[in-house]
Design goal:
- By secondary structure, the chain is an alpha/beta fold.
- 54% of the residues lie in helices and 12% in strands.
- It has 18 helices and eleven strands.
- The strands form three sheets. It has a seven-stranded mixed beta barrel with strand order 1-2-6-5-4-3-7.
- It is elongated.
- The N and C termini lie far apart (65 Å).
Length: 504
C-alpha cells in the first residue's frame, strides 16, 4: 500500500513538474481572428478554459524590457485588466506573478530565451495566486511584436488533446504497406534469382543488386554500432546530425534508384549507351535512361536536403525517400533462418525498450535517449531533426502541433526489423508452396502490433518503443503458424530452402 501511495504521489509530482501545453491566441484589438502561439503553463497556478470562446480577451502590456522583479518596474497605474509580457530571470516565477496580480493583472506571460519549463511553485503560493501564468518562447514574442505591435489582445486557453491524431492512419498505411510490399518484393526477387541461376541465365541477375545474408556476428556488431551511435548522438547531436543527414541523402538516392529502375527498364526508348569515358559511374557505359534516372534520384535527395526544414511539404519528400530506402534494405538484406530472425528481433527488442524506458533514470533531464534523439533535443543549437523517421504533421488542432511535437514519428527501424521477418516468411512460403500463409499472417501481425503501439501511446501519453509490441506479435504469430503446420524445424533452420530447390 505504501508503494502504491508513493507511486501515485510521484505521478502527481511528475505532472506538476511537466506542466501542460496551451495556446495564446493573439489578435488585433476588437478582432476575433488572430494567431495561436504555444505556451507552457502549470494548472496549479490557475486553470485555463478549454474553449477559446470562453477565454477572456485582454490587452497585452509589453514589458519585455523588464523582468518584473521589483515594484519599481511596475508602470504607473499598474496592469488593470491586462496581461503583462515580461522577460524571464532575476527572481522566481512566484515573485513575478505576485507582483503582477497585486497590480491588477489578469494573467502573466513570461518570455523565455531558453527551453520552456513549467512555472513551478509550492502549495502556499498556488493558493495565493489566482491568475494564470505561462511561458512563451522568445521567438514567438518577437513575432507577436512584429505582427500585432503594442495593441494586441490575447486569450489564454488549453484545448483538450485528441486521444489519437488522424495522421496515425497515414503512418499506419505507410508502415504496413512498406512492410508488405518490401517483404513480398524481397521474397519474389530471391526466388527469381534462384530460378535464373538454376537456368544458367545470369543476365537478369547481373542487373540486380547482390543480397547480404546476415550472420549472428553481424547482428551483434550492428546492435553494438546502433547503441554507440545513439549515445554519441545524445551527447554530440549538433556535431553528428549533419553527417546523418548526408548519409540519408546518399542512401535514399540509392534506394529510390533501386525501386524505380525495374519500371524504367520497361521504357522502350533510351536504351543507347553513353560513349566510352573514365568517369567514376559512367565508365561502365550505362544506358541513357538509367543515367537520367540516377540524376533524377540524386536531384530529389538534394532538393530534400536543401529544403528539409520546410515543414509544409518537405515531410512528403522525406517519407518518399524513407520508404524507398526501407524497400531497398528489405530486398538487399536477407535473414537466412528463423533462428537469425529471432536473434535479431530479440536483441533489438531489448535495445529499444532499454533506450526508451530505462535511460530516463540515467539522464539529467529525465528524458529517454531514444525519444530525445528521434525528436531532436530541444536545446539543440542547430534545431535540425534526424531524417531516419517517417513523419506526418498533426491534422488535429492541438497545442502539440504548435509546441515541441508538430509531427507524429515512426522510426525506420520499426519498419525494417519486422519487415526482414516478413520477407523471410514470404521466401519460406514460396519454397514450401504454402499459399503465402506465413507472409500474410506475419503482415497482419505487424499491423496488429502497430495498432497496439498506437493504443499504448494514447493511454500512456509518452513515446513508446514500437518494437516492444511489434516483435512479440510478429515472432509469436510466425512461430504459431509453423507449429500449426508442423514445419517448425524447417522454418527454424531454413532447411526448406535446400530441400525444395529442385522444385523451382
Amino acid at each position: 500500500m505504501r508503494d502504491l501511495s508513493a507511486l501515485i504521489f510521484g505521478a502527481i509530482l511528475v505532472k506538476q513538474v511537466l506542466g501542460e501545453y496551451g495556446m495564446a491566441h493573439v489578435s488585433e484589438r476588437g478582432k476575433s481572428k488572430g494567431k495561436d502561439y504555444c505556451i507552457l503553463f502549470n494548472s496549479q497556478w490557475a486553470h485555463l478554459p478549454q474553449d477559446l470562446n470562453k477565454a477572456s480577451r485582454l490587452q497585452i502590456h509589453d514589458l519585455t524590457a523588464s523582468v518584473l522583479c521589483s515594484p519599481s518596474e511596475v508602470p504607473a497605474g499598474g496592469f488593470p485588466n491586462r496581461i503583462p509580457m515580461v522577460l524571464r530571470g532575476n527572481c522566481t516565477f512566484y515573485e513575478k506573478v505576485r507582483l503582477a496580480q497585486i497590480n491588477g493583472a489578469k494573467g502573466l506571460l513570461i518570455v523565455s530565451k531558453d527551453r520552456l519549463t513549467p512555472p513551478a511553485g509550492n502549495r502556499t503560493q498556488y493558493e495565493e495566486i489566482d491568475i494564470p501564468v505561462a511561458l512563451l518562447s522568445f521567438t514567438d514574442m518577437l513575432d507577436i511584436s512584429k505582427t500585432f505591435g503594442k495593441g494586441g489582445e490575447v486569450a489564454l486557453y488549453a484545448p483538450n488533446e485528441p486521444v489519437l491524431d488522424y495522421n496515425m492512419v497515414i503512418i499506419f498505411l505507410m508502415a504496413v504497406g512498406t512492410v508488405a510490399i518490401g517483404g513480398y518484393w524481397a521474397g519474389s526477387r530471391d526466388i527469381k534469382k534462384r530460378y535464373m541461376k538454376h537456368k544458367r541465365d545470369d543476365s537478369a541477375e547481373k542487373q540486380d543488386e547482390e543480397t547480404v545474408d546476415v550472420t549472428p556476428i553481424m547482428i551483434c556488431v550492428f546492435v553494438g554500432m546502433c547503441c554507440s551511435m545513439l549515445v554519441m548522438l545524445y551527447y554530440f547531436y549538433d556535431h553528428l546530425v549533419y553527417m546523418i543527414i548526408g548519409i540519408f541523402c546518399l542512401a535514399a538516392s540509392i534506394g529510390l534508384y533501386s525501386c524505380l529502375s525495374p519500371f524504367v527498364r520497361r521504357i522502350p526508348f533510351g536504351k543507347c549507351r553513353i560513349p566510352e569515358n573514365n568517369l567514376p559511374y559512367c565508365h561502365k557505359r550505362p544506358q541513357l535512361r538509367m543515367l537520367l534516372l540516377c540524376m533524377f534520384c540524386v536531384a530529389v535527395s538534394v532538393i530534400w536536403g536543401v529544403f528539409r526544414n520546410e515543414d509544409q511539404w518537405a515531410w512528403v519528400l522525406q517519407d518518399t525517400l524513407g520508404i524507398a530506402f526501407c524497400l531497398y534494405m528489405l530486398k538487399t538484406i536477407r535473414l537466412p533462418t528463423f533462428k537469425a530472425c529471432t536473434l535479431l528481433l530479440t536483441v533489438l527488442f531489448v535495445y529499444d525498450v532499454f533506450f526508451v524506458f530505462i535511460t530516463p533514470f540515467f539522464t539529467k533531464s529525465g528524458e529517454s535517449i531514444m525519444v530525445e534523439v528521434a525528436a531532436g533535443p530541444s536545446d539543440s543549437s542547430t534545431h535540425e531533426k534526424l531524417p531516419m523517421v517517417l513523419k506526418v504533421p498533426r491534422l488535429n488542432s492541438s497545442p502539440l502541433a504548435l509546441c515541441d511535437r508538430p509531427f507524429s514519428l515512426l522510426g525506420f527501424g520499426d519498419i525494417l526489423v519486422p519487415g526482414l521477418l516478413v520477407a523471410y516468411c514470404h521466401r519460406f512460403d514460396i519454397q514450401m508452396q504454402s499459399s503465402r500463409i506465413y507472409f500474410v499472417a506475419c503482415t497482419i501481425a505487424y499491423g496488429v502490433g502497430l495498432l497496439i503501439t498506437f493504443v499504448a501511446l494514447a493511454l500512456m501519453q509518452m513515446g513508446q518503443p514500437a518494437l516492444l509490441y511489434l516483435v512479440p506479435c510478429t515472432l509469436l504469430t510466425s512461430l504459431a503458424v509453423a507449429l500449426w503446420r508442423r514445419e517448425l524445424h524447417m522454418f527454424w533452420t531454413g532447411s526448406g530452402f535446400v530441400v525444395n530447390t529442385s522444385l523451382i
